Amino acid sequence: MAGCTRGRGGPAFQEGFENGLGDWQANAAIGPEVNIEEFEWEVTVSGEQAMSGERSLRIWNEGDYDDGVTWVTHPVPVPSGGADEATVRAQIWSESESFNTLRDAVMRLGPERPETEEEFPHPGVNTTALGETPYGGLREPLWLADGWREYTFEWTMPSLSTETLYVSVGTSVIWEGDATHYVDDISVEFDSA
Asked: Which residue, 1, 22, 77, 107, is most buried by CB atoms nearer than 10 A?
């Protein structure tokens, strides 16, 4: 269920995909050497895996080019009175554990919707330890666990003049081979200093 609450101590936004995609927008990008129409990807809501409830977001993308990113984005209202920090969490499912990095999880929260892969953090970056940045996010390996694993980042926000931020979650291709991942229990929490 997508929802926005402004209560203290709880998430301002939560999503479990029980009611479908709703206002989520799917997108994909790939490097300039490949035409985006040649990159195969799919985003759907599925009952095959779920961390909680009965459904989750299914992200599939091909790995033929050792490149490409597939993600979804949703608007999140900034609490009245503003906020100084945000914490974003998501549960992401991998088929098995692997010592090879086949895909990265990509997550982002910022004042604009991402349009390209470069608008997500670089590999291995999590903004939790970076202090104030223009947007928050992470790019960390998937396949670290068999099944569900939580991915989280914190964002120290600059002074913003917007009432809406955009949360994005997806997968980035690292290694050849098609792969399916599931995403569930996305949350965004705001805090003021």
From this structure: 107
